[in-house]
Specification:
The structure is a homohexamer of 253-residue chains. In chain A, 47% of the residues lie in helices and 16% in strands. With 253 residues, chain A is an alpha/beta fold.
């Protein structure tokens, strides 16, 4: 089975630089995939991407060596399984707030008898090889998003679920949940402390920590502190920011 | 943030005339949107419309001043949030049968810390403006469908949920649930009484009442009685009815 | 091979009532197809329909007994042939202005050695049966649009092309070309005379005459004068007209 | 209402030969539908097919007499109802593990007051006829997949749910759940015994038994033992197997 | 009819800053359209965009005040007309090499009797208003691309065609045609001279000159010399450049 | 630039085994591409595939080492160039009947100043590498289809066009054009002689010869005679043939 480069990076204690796809276009995804991101995450939660579009983005990513991940919209067994069958080499699940949430995430992404993932890796087997069924459980990466006050409260319970590979911090939702203004990078102190805490507890449990960032500066700083999976910007933000830059310079006196 | 004209109509105690979209075509939706409906509802429950198609219908509606609403297929957090992120200015949720159902509907469409909506209004912010996060909770309209015997039973409990803006009566399902024949307009007496009761209780709770209609006659009569949101027909029905009318007249002797 | 009901209607000297599809949605087309139109024409010229969408509309029509026709965007061999391969039982070609135009239309829709249609009826054979290749030439209907002053001038030359089954009058373009205001039904006298002339010459050559109409009244009047293929309205117009009717009645005092 | 040929085959104690669609292409589905399968199942669970694509596959199947079935991705009320509204004449639901699961499957596919299916058969009524609402409950076929150790344990409780028409055995998942290697046909003895048991209990409860097969041999053997619904291969497998056969023969010395 | 802001900019002797769309995604186009470009050009020639996708991009642009233009793939009457019917407020046509090419471009985009554009502005009328037919000829902008040695040779003949509003220089193709290396900005001297010549002749004929640029620097310099329509970069290039910038900074030591 | 494996096979005097794609599904194409065909040809002429679908099929093929070719619907400059820009490593052009046809095919697929291909390899450069512009002319393969009596007549004139890499025989159209029954393999003697003649003349001119086949037997026999590019069957035919085989065996007594 095709290996998961993300696991390899982590074994070498390196930080993966992750790109983010919110645009439902396989051509846009192919452009992104050819730039050299370690991983690209198709965002089915807040991105404008449904299952059928997601598959085409995974195909686009599969034309390169970049590792394909998917953020699912919710902790939903049918969609989690379809996502893996489509060839995602990792899933990020939002709003994991309890140990039970985390346990279900792991179960639904792991084959029986250990888990409850249904069998039928129709595209995953094309992409990964005929021995996918034997190695999928150990190759796929499972991220639980930590982004609420409740999750913070339950962090040790969540982190102790066997089979959970990583947590992923959503600074905006975490901010809102703690009564602060939503922000990716310039979070309020209460949120900054929470993020530190999550990172520290993840390390204590031997679980990888990842985080969403708006800027290179934030991503580098967080990587330096131990985050091993950092997202920077997104395809839609690149379009907006790049356009703004051009238009401001064109209209400057 | 772009205002919600529906709320404005209601402040003026006027009735919104709502069109209904079951056809998954942005061009068809654009034709509909240019006719002057106050609101157009994309029907993801019984319409032939999934998330990805729904986004294109919202884009089509956004070329006009008509207000875009969406009926979601079910009380599902992932899809409710994706729908709002896509720029729906209101959601209609089917089968709200208990106070708990209604409370979840409100929570999943309201940002933390008051609610549990996850943050990432990717298209809504384009459509509504950069200050969307600050005003979304107060701008978005939440409709709970009242369409079962159980909901009728629990009507006061449902209506007392804070943040629920409106109820929407589905006469066909309500008829079936009460053991009657499904119908939009010519409902059986038991159903007519139930509808009256819902309207009366909604007014008592200061909640807006809306209803689905098959004809102008029914919609006008119900508006006259106090319904402030009336749907008439649908795109698919217009095609069928218009064709029937032409063919009958062409084949008349 | 599945017969062409349009030819049968003509053999019985009856007028086909044709519906018009400008919306690129197979569901909308399926709704239209279930209403009982004799034929439905997918409009690839002015409709919002490209080849790939057209195929889905033909599939939708194929769920019923309605006869599927296609108006191609231009006299283009590649597209004419793809349209027939996709299972159109007739084609309407715009802007046939000379005998040579008409001859090419016939050649490109007729197999060698009589014509130059390339062989590969991939979907047509599914729809029509394994013996499609043997009967296609005699089953398919070819319409030449007569809609310019030049075509009017060349009408006898056009009509004398062997294999041309029918002409189709486009009153709006014909009006513009004659220096009049575009209109489907209320054409200026100069245009009305031209239409009469086309009809008369078509009959003289044993070629069927068809025409585009905006209303039942115009279509009935023209059918009474001898047009054997009359289009009335279109899917997009039904949506607009139906909506207008509802909104006017809802907003009437 | 259009009858369900599957029920008729069962009344005659005949076995339906079912084809399987994992490719999201209406043209591919139309090719399959024209080959004479008794039923074709659109696989929304492990197939690369979402709701919007599924509708186009149902339209393709509707151009023939083949009966259209859908396997839904999960026991989800919104999607089950949308599937039926789209015109599926039967649904296969995975991972039915308890009596409660089975009861919900039946309720969500049956109209009130007996069940809880919401009313709005937008495409089903086109396909099936205007009297669809009156006959849908008795026409639609409901399959519960039996594919886990838990389901095996609860088999009698599941089979005793009124309104459940059939069970469908997924040999791969059942194998995994029983600690065996996933396989369609050459299952390990423990799995073979389980399959026998399911068949025997289904017969005892008067419920039809169906099963997924990889080969004609397995399907024939199982049909001979009493399975009345046997799937053989799938569209994607036909492409792979057919290609392999050609390439091996082309490259043979 | 909705005015053409591009013509207004030109009347004020201002330079339009044009964005470029090669990605077939209405969401990506909507993101671009909300950034404030004066015009956005959907590139059907070298972009990954066909007619059906183009319509969705025009719809996305129509949610803003940005002016929608389309570069067609070739001087093809069917496609030029479909493009205008879809609501493009201007067309850029590649490879106009002779006076005859230019004359056909103008004729096919102008209604009879002056031109030969067929009548049926199905989406343009929605977008532009009911009086579109009366004002389209004077509102639509027609660009002829000057990008070959032959066109350079025929420049005065081309520019003297009545109704041609503007020329658009393609520096890459012009370079290749003159035997130089393809480049947008750093063109070889022979190409620079040719561009100067085109600009000078356009001014002499009272025709607007536009040009494709890779950078803000080139675009500003060319605008300063008199180009009144300058394209900078494209959506796909923004994704690539933005990603490169992030990855280089993330991987810097 | 990514090399063209097809040219390499030919340098080694080996015959490429080509698969054929008529189904507009990237997933189906991905299944096909993973089976090991030397080349896969997307059929835009008789396949149910338009430009936008074609791009997704090329992306699917690009996930493997199989070489992507495209048959265009007609000798059309706009579409030929878009096809190459999309990343086809070879094009097959139908109905090349004269030296002039062949010369235009070569010119439109070759950059200036030698040819007239417009510059903008938007996806080809992603797939092939940044040096695509320098090497494309020598890497891309151009096939002229020889399939009419006229082409047979003009065979030496066609074959002598510099830059034409290969001819491709369409036995069905050639049969029709010679007044015979259409067939891929069991062609009538007159057609067999014509095919022999084409092969012989191609060799004399140093041009590769390819041919369409329905069966392995025909393909092997023709490869043995010197055809260096043989197509066998197609995706749609594999679905039909595989289904037929299963159904016949299931229904055998």
């Amino acid at each position: 089975m095709r290996e998961n480069r993300l696991r390899q990076l982590w074994r070498e204690n390196r930080t993966a630089v992750n790109g983010w796809l919110a645009i439902p276009s396989a051509f846009a995804a192919e452009v992104m995939a050819h730039q050299g991101w370690d991983t690209l995450t198709v965002d089915m939660q807040h991105g404008v991407v449904d299952y059928q579009a997601m598959v085409t983005l995974l195909q686009a990513i599969s034309t390169t060596a970049t590792e394909p991940l998917v953020r699912v919209p919710w902790l939903d067994p049918g969609l989690l399984m379809k996502t893996l069958d489509a060839g995602a080499w990792g899933v990020i699940c939002p709003m994991i707030n309890t140990r039970d949430d985390a346990a279900r995430l792991v179960a639904w992404t792991t084959y029986a008898p250990r888990g409850a993932r249904s069998f039928g890796p129709v595209r995953a087997q094309l992409y990964g090889g005929a021995d996918y069924p034997a190695h999928a459980d150990a190759t796929i990466v499972r991220f639980a998003m930590i982004e609420t006050a409740q999750a913070l409260d339950q962090i040790d319970a969540i982190l102790s679920v066997e089979g959970l590979d990583a947590v992923y911090v959503g600074p905006s939702d975490l901010s809102l949940s703690l009564g602060c203004k939503p922000s990716f990078d310039d979070v309020e102190p209460k949120v900054a402390q929470a993020i530190d805490h999550i990172l520290e507890r993840a390390h204590a449990h031997g679980v990888v920590a990842g985080i969403h960032n708006g800027s290179v500066e934030a991503a580098r700083a967080r990587a330096a502190r131990g985050f091993r999976f950092v997202t920077v910007s997104s395809d839609a933000r690149l379009l907006a920011a790049g356009s703004q830059q051009i238009l401001q310079r064109m209209r400057a006196p």
